Amino acid sequence: MLGSHIFSSEDIQKSFNCVAKHLQPGGLLIISCSNAYGNSLVELDNGIVHKKIATTELIENEHYALLNYLFYENEKLLAQETVKLKLISYQTCKMMLEKAGLVEKDINPGKYYTYLKN
Questions:
Q1: CB within 8 Å of 86: residues ≥ 6 apart
Q2: Share of the chain above pLDDT 90, in %
Q3: What is the pLDDT of residue 17?
Q4: Cβ contacts of 98 within 8 Å, gap of 6 or more
Q5: How far is Cα 92 from Cα 13, in angstroms, rounded to an integer?
Q6: Number of domains in the chain
Q7: What sign results for the dihedral spanned by CA atoms 21, 10, 87, 6?
Q8: DSSP state letter for 109
Q9: Taking the model in full, what pTM does it have?
Q10: What single-letter DSSP state applies at residue 44?
Q11: Domain range holding 28?
Q12: What angle do CA 16, 18, 109 make, to 5 degrees?
């Protein structure tokens, strides 16, 4: 799954088209992978605790990830932010990139995907 800050499929396609337009023939688009959707708890300096809670939602037949970032000091909530990402399946992403003129070149699951401009 690809997580996008852009919610409109049409706008995501436009963004892929723009990336392809700026690549020279033979140029590569490299998409690195991360496990942004997992929960975590990290103790930072000065007694601050950073907690991330990841959930998914189905809204009007579209999948979204909700990433909640919370910061605590002595169990008191200091700050909270929620980031919403539209989730795009691997097949949909591949199809959109191909439509933009980018073909899959190499995959290392969990690490990166590379796409070549024709």
A1: 3, 4, 5, 6, 7, 12, 62, 63, 64
A2: 84
A3: 98
A4: 104
A5: 11
A6: 1
A7: positive
A8: T
A9: 0.82
A10: -
A11: 2-117
A12: 30
Q: Count of CB atoms within 10 A of residue 54's CB?
A: 16
Q: Answer for the pair 53, 38: CB distance below 8 angstroms, yes or no.
A: no
Distance of CA 103 to the CA centre of its chain: 20
Q: Give the model confidence (pLDDT) of 9-60 as tens digits.
A: 999 999 999 999 999 999 999 999 877 667 899 999 889 999 999 999 999 9
Structure tokens at 79: 């700050």
d(CA 13, CA 110): 23
- As beta bridge partners, residue 32 has 112
Contact partners, residue 18, CB within 8 Å, separation at least 6? none
- pLDDT the model gives residue 34: 77
Q: Is the dihedral of CA 50, 51, 57, 63 positive or negative?
A: positive
Amino acid at 56: T
- 3-class SS letters over 7-32: CCHHHHHHHHHHHHHHCCCCCEEEEE
Task: State residue 43 phi and psi, 5-degree precision.
Answer: -90, 120
**How far apart, in whole angstroms, are the C-alpha atoms of residue 23 and residue 101?**
10
